[in-house]
From TrEMBL:
Nitroreductase domain residues: 9-162
Protein name according to UniProt: NADPH-dependent oxidoreductase
Taxonomy, superkingdom: Bacteria
Hydrolase listed as a keyword: no
Record-linked Gene3D superfamilies: NADH Oxidase (3.40.109.10)
Keywords, in A-Z order: Flavoprotein, FMN, NADP, Oxidoreductase
InterPro entries attached to this UniProt entry: Flavin_OxRdtase_Frp, Nitroreductase, Nitroreductase-like
Species for this entry: Streptococcus oricebi
Matching Pfam families: Nitroreductase
UniProt record similarity statement: Belongs to the flavin oxidoreductase frp family.
Length: 237
């Protein structure tokens, strides 16, 4: 163990914040640490929109009713971005092929790595936060609210602030059911059932459904179409 690993293993999402502000300087430091993450071919195919005005936080909350957005000092909107790439491409050719899953993976992975670095940097300074993927269910409206141009899309938000609550660290799946030696190992359903119990013990009265029931709610039904529709509007699908 060292302080970095200890910080990483102590991560828990924070959804309730005090009024304490993050200073401009700290915020810049946090985001610059986030931006130090690796990216595909160093393309940095994402942008981050800082939302600090209460009016805009409230406008986002109207679309994505998650209390953390209202309470956060800062809401960061992570945007997958091939708009900047288009300008670079146009210096050399009129051809441009931004659409499709491969390019979505490029921008989504780049944004995710930067976001996780950002969250850890914030945590290292005594702040906390939560990633808000539900912005994708209002992708079009969020896009309009922050003036997203073609070839960009909202991937997730991140509410950041001074924690007003300290949850216990959420237990992960057992190491051996995630990490395999040399080749993939199919899992028995028993592992899932055991983890349902672990999660139930962690969440107590708070959880309205089990972990595997939430899997069924997510993947046992057709995916929400909002992202897909907006990605088509944005010429990314
Ligand atoms: C891509 C992504 C999207 C998420 N979206 C939401 C969200 O919309 N609302 C929320 O409360 N938590 C959201 N979370 C937080 C997860 O629920 C949380 O990370 C997970 O339950 C593990 O808990 P922990 O972060 O406290 O360890 C999201 C996390 C990720 C990585």
């Amino acid at each position: 163990m060292n302080p970095t690993i200890s910080l990483m293993k102590n991560h828990r999402s924070v959804r309730r914040f005090t009024d304490q502000a993050i200073s401009e300087e700290e915020l810049r430091t946090i985001i610059d640490a986030g931006r130090a993450a690796s990216s595909w071919k160093n393309f940095q195919s994402y942008s981050i929109i800082l939302i600090r005005s209460q009016a805009k936080k409230e406008a986002i909350y109207q679309l994505v009713p998650q209390e953390a957005i209202l309470q956060a000092d800062t809401f960061l909107l992570f945007v997958g971005d091939l708009n900047r790439a288009q300008k670079g491409v146009a210096l050399h050719t009129e051809d441009f092929y931004p659409a499709g899953p491969e390019n979505l993976l490029i921008s989504s992975v780049d944004a995710s790595l930067a976001a996780q670095n950002t969250l850890l940097a914030a945590e290292s300074l005594g702040y906390g936060g939560v990633i808000i993927g539900l912005v994708r269910y209002a992708a079009k409206e969020i896009g309009q609210l922050v003036n997203l141009p073609a070839y960009t899309y909202p991937i997730f938000g991140m509410a950041l602030g001074k924690p007003a609550q300290e949850n216990a660290v959420k237990p992960r799946l057992p190491y051996d059911s995630i990490v395999f030696s040399e080749e993939y190992q199919e899992q028995e359903a028993e592992i899932i059932e055991d983890y349902d119990q672990v999660q139930a013990a962690y969440a107590g009265q708070r959880a309205p459904s089990s972990w595997s029931e939430r899997l069924a709610q997510q993947f046992g039904e057709p995916a929400n179409q909002a992202s897909q529709n907006y990605l088509k509007d944005q010429k990314l699908l």
